[in-house]
TrEMBL record:
<dbReference type="InterPro" id="IPR002104">
    <property type="entry name" value="Integrase_catalytic"/>
</dbReference>
<dbReference type="InterPro" id="IPR010998">
    <property type="entry name" value="Integrase_recombinase_N"/>
</dbReference>
<keyword id="KW-0238">DNA-binding</keyword>
<feature type="domain" description="Tyr recombinase">
    <location>
        <begin position="178"/>
        <end position="383"/>
    </location>
</feature>
<dbReference type="GO" id="GO:0006310">
    <property type="term" value="P:DNA recombination"/>
</dbReference>
<protein>
    <submittedName>
        <fullName>Putative phage integrase</fullName>
    </submittedName>
</protein>
<dbReference type="GO" id="GO:0015074">
    <property type="term" value="P:DNA integration"/>
</dbReference>
<dbReference type="Pfam" id="PF00589">
    <property type="entry name" value="Phage_integrase"/>
</dbReference>
<keyword id="KW-0233">DNA recombination</keyword>
<dbReference type="InterPro" id="IPR013762">
    <property type="entry name" value="Integrase-like_cat_sf"/>
</dbReference>
<comment type="similarity">
    <text>Belongs to the 'phage' integrase family.</text>
</comment>
<dbReference type="InterPro" id="IPR050090">
    <property type="entry name" value="Tyrosine_recombinase_XerCD"/>
</dbReference>
<dbReference type="InterPro" id="IPR011010">
    <property type="entry name" value="DNA_brk_join_enz"/>
</dbReference>
<dbReference type="GO" id="GO:0003677">
    <property type="term" value="F:DNA binding"/>
</dbReference>
Length: 405
């Protein structure tokens, strides 16, 4: 058999022949784990006996050449997922909240579709059909599903349990045409008024607000901070005496299922660590908040619960929804404040400045996800196009003959 047809760890055809002594010799060629060609042979009193002895040797060699990883092509997909999650836990490089999100998505998105398949049975066609179903549910669900499955199958490739990552062979998911929307100044004022009047008329149920929600909104609008980043601000992150005042964004608040909410000492990415010069209304909101809290240690959060613990993003979102609903105002998410800040800065200072403010490494991300498209065309076009205004006898004066083109 030609050498090119033998893969590593595979055997050629067995050949047998009778020796001058009357016994039988069986031989076979194979490639070892280093890619070198070797030969096995055994002898016996008959052809069948020689082949049987050789096959015992071949079985021993095959066992030695089996992949050392406990994950192979025949491993169940559920076991591969468990192995992947355990590896993430052991590496400890991802935030706890990220690992918990991956575990949830694997359990609720991946395993219902692929639990009963082996690793080698996760094919491009199966993945393509599954992603089509996920896309029918929502674009966001399909994107998350595709990302997590690609991470899992990427591990299978590295462990040589799969020859390639089937996710990479699927078609690209097309984002629906839905441009980001920012708030107008008048809309922002309506939101401010709704939050300021929430539960303060004496008839509403529930405890009287402590003013933190108003200050949190002004911080998000004036810094473009994510909600978790705003809640993670400490006294040492503030320099309100500078001209202009600045706020350093250097952490975020996370709420893992396995432990209490805490301040993580870094935001979403390294680029997200930034010191932002803030407008006067943001500085004033923070000063008002500190006037309520009194003197605090430098490493103390400026937004916190009555027990002194970090506020959860879920709780702040709920308060915002309730305040807007009670005032009959359409609900907005905290991320709308971030998009609003980005859109205003882009309009007056350019896309690069907006990306820098948001802590993005790419202006493409800023433009695609955060900048509301401006439909207004520069008014100078009207003045320029006046050159095409009709003038009596212009073509004859200029000696121009008009022809169709």
């Amino acid at each position: 058999m030609p050498r090119s047809r033998l893969g590593v760890g595979t055997f050629g055809e067995i050949s047998t022949q009778q020796t001058p002594s009357g016994r039988f010799r069986a031989r076979v060629r194979y490639r070892d784990g280093h890619g070198r060609y070797r030969q096995l042979e055994s002898t016996g009193g008959s052809r069948a006996d020689a082949r049987r002895r050789l096959q015992l040797k071949m079985r021993t060699v095959s066992d030695e050449l089996e992949p050392t990883s406990e994950i192979t092509g025949g491993t169940s997909f559920a076991d591969l997922v468990a192995y992947w999650l355990a590896a993430l836990e052991a590496e400890g490089e991802l935030a706890i909240s990220t690992r918990e999100r991956y575990a949830w998505e694997a359990e609720h998105l991946l395993l219902p579709a692929f639990r009963d398949f082996t690793v080698r049975e996760i094919t491009v066609a199966r993945v393509e059909r599954w992603l089509t179903q996920q896309r029918a549910f929502s674009y966001a669900r399909a994107v998350h599903s595709k990302k997590v499955l690609s991470l899992v199958m990427g591990l299978a490739v590295r462990l040589e349990a799969a020859d390639r990552n089937p996710v990479q062979g699927t078609r690209r998911l097309k984002r629906p045409a839905r441009p980001p929307m920012a708030l107008e100044a008048v809309e922002l004022d309506v939101i401010r008024d709704a939050v300021a009047s929430w539960r303060r008329n004496g008839t509403s149920m529930g405890p009287r607000p402590d003013g933190q929600l108003e200050a949190i909104i002004e911080v998000m609008v004036g810094t473009s901070a994510r909600i978790g980043e705003a809640l993670a601000l400490r006294v040492c992150d503030l320099d309100l005496d500078a001209e202009p005042p600045t706020i350093r964004i250097a952490g975020t608040v996370v709420s893992p299922k396995s432990r209490p909410t805490y301040r993580q000492d870094h935001p979403k990415s390294a680029k997200s660590v930034r010191r932002v010069a803030v407008p006067s209304f943001t500085a004033e909101a923070v000063r008002s908040r500190l006037a309520v809290t009194g003197a605090l240690p430098q490493d103390h959060l400026i937004f916190f619960s009555r027990n002194g613990t970090p506020l959860t993003t879920a709780n702040v979102r709920r308060r915002l929804r309730e305040a807007l609903r009670s005032a009959g105002v359409a609900t907005v998410t905290p991320h709308a404040f971030r998009r609003t800040a980005a859109t205003v800065v882009d309009k007056h200072g350019g896309l690069d400045l907006a990306a820098e403010l948001l802590g993005h490494t790419s202006t493409a991300i800023t433009r695609l996800h955060y900048i509301q498209p401006d439909e207004q065309v520069d008014a100078r076009t009207a003045e320029i196009l006046e050159h095409l205004s009709p003038r009596s006898g212009r073509s004859h004066e200029a000696g121009v003959c008009c022809t169709s083109r």
